[in-house]
Design brief:
This protein is mainly beta and about 450 residues long. It has one domain: Porin (Beta Barrel), CATH 2.40.160.10. Helix content is about 15%, strand content about 55%. Helix 1 packs antiparallel against helix 2.
Length: about 450
């Protein structure tokens, strides 16, 4: 048994040793999260310590070889994408186009089309004992010409955590853990279960307001597990990185987040119907200092979200609402004014499964924003993003799905011009209609 355990951790150590340098370069450059090597070492040490205390449970399955406890899963989505969305531009003070919006840049789709659009993950799960599991996931993705790609390595350490089942309905994960946020955040890489290429971009984003993982811990518990009404509860805390846009040059910067949050799922007696509620608080430093916040300052944000997830035999209905709000900030770019904002993200998705193989989906996404500042002459409520999407899925089998989707996008943004008032020089904001456009994605998702 001892020899078997040594082989297990030797294998995991090799896996983590390979993956750590791949992720370390981007993380050390941004100084936003704990290094991958540190995560790997801490998780392996925790797993070894608990495995030793579970010798009795391990003995029950000692007749099995080490590799019999290893499970490997793979996920790949390869796509071709094309857009006319680059017709939309942020406005100059006089209303003339200035440059592409951050949403356009984040998507990374080019006007002449791109096949450099891919999401791939390889996951290793090792069942140390009936109550202990070690999970490592490596990922690689291509985002066309998105500036976000500059901060990602070809292969990255996606997850690396140790999970201990404390009781039948309670578990704890330690390491680089998936954040339980909404319906899709923990399954972003599993293209075969996503109706579109990605979850709602307005709600989940690509690393701006949402992170896939947290370097810390997650505690989960199921209440009333034997009842028709059960409640899944998660609490997590730790650090993660996020992307921010500079107001000066529309460039991308990386900010450091420290925070905590929770996710609740109420499971109902109706098969396939559940309701979610969650939120998190985070303190943000770095990033677009001098534009979004003063140099060395900390921004504090609260995020609340609610979900409805209804998946029936032929029909699917999903909707999520999210409200993102921060403490008033002194922002130099607004003539040293106190800036406040409330950003709202929400979407609704309806699906119809015509047959076992043919499925249709429609999705509407919206991103209204309430913006004001002490140096503004007035407050505004622009709708940053209005995205109506249609998708066709052909399911060859549960592990192979072909998808074709079309999105019509429009939106508004805020222009700013100087205004001389009795109170002195102020900023007069105004809403500008962006040209908008559309984008198309054809993708093939496979898993094993």
């Amino acid at each position: 048994m001892v020899t078997g355990i040594r082989r297990v951790f030797a294998f995991l150590a090799i896996t983590l040793t390979i993956s750590a340098p791949l992720a370390a370069s981007s993380e050390s450059a941004t100084s936003t999260t704990t290094s991958s090597a540190q995560i790997a070492a801490a998780v392996s040490a925790a797993a070894a310590s608990v495995a030793a205390s579970d010798a009795g449970e391990e003995a029950q399955s000692s007749n099995q070889g080490p590799l019999s406890k290893l499970t490997i899963h793979g996920f790949l989505t390869q796509a071709w994408a094309d857009t006319t969305f680059l017709d939309g531009r942020l406005p100059n003070p006089d209303g003339t186009p200035a440059g592409p919006t951050f949403e356009e840049l984040s998507l990374g789709i080019t006007e002449d089309g791109t096949s450099s659009y891919r999401n791939m993950a390889l996951q290793f799960r090792y069942q140390i004992s009936p109550r202990d599991v070690m999970v490592v996931q490596l990922s690689s993705r291509a985002l066309g010409n998105s500036p976000i790609a500059e901060f990602e390595d070809e292969v990255e350490l996606d997850w690396a955590f140790y999970e201990r089942r404390i009781a039948d309905n309670t578990s704890i994960k330690v390491g680089r853990v998936q954040i339980p946020l909404g319906i899709f955040n923990e399954i972003r890489d599993v293209g075969t279960v996503l109706p579109f290429y990605r979850p709602s971009f307005t709600f989940y984003r690509e690393g701006t307001f949402t992170s896939e993982t947290v370097d810390g811990f997650d505690i989960g518990h199921t209440f009333w597990a034997e009842s028709d009404w059960s409640l899944d509860a998660d609490f997590y805390a730790g650090e993660w990185a996020s992307f921010e846009q500079s107001f000066f040059d529309q460039g991308v910067t990386v900010a450091r987040n420290k925070g905590y949050g929770f996710q609740l799922w109420l499971n109902t007696p109706v098969t396939g119907l559940r309701f979610g509620l969650g939120g998190h608080h985070r303190d943000v430093t770095g990033g677009s200092e001098g534009a979004i916040r003063e140099l060395g300052a900390t921004s504090r944000f609260d995020d609340w979200y609610a979900s409805v997830d209804a998946v029936f035999d032929r029909w699917v209905f999903r909707s999520e609402y999210r409200q993102y709000e921060g403490d008033p900030e002194r922002v130099p770019v607004f003539l040293d004014g106190i800036f406040t904002g409330k950003i709202i993200f929400y979407y609704a998705q309806v699906g119809f499964h015509a047959t076992e193989k043919i499925r249709f989906y429609v999705q509407a996404e919206y991103n209204p924003n309430k913006t004001s500042a002490t140096t503004f002459t007035r407050s505004l409520d622009p709708n940053f993003r209005d995205d109506i999407g249609f998708a066709f899925n052909y399911v060859f089998n549960p592990n192979l799905v072909l998808k074709a989707e079309y999105h019509d996008v429009k939106g508004e943004d805020v222009g700013i011009r100087p205004a001389f008032t009795p109170q002195g020089l102020r900023l007069d904001p105004f809403i500008v209609e962006l040209d908008g456009g559309s984008y198309t994605i054809i993708s093939l998702s496979a898993s094993f």
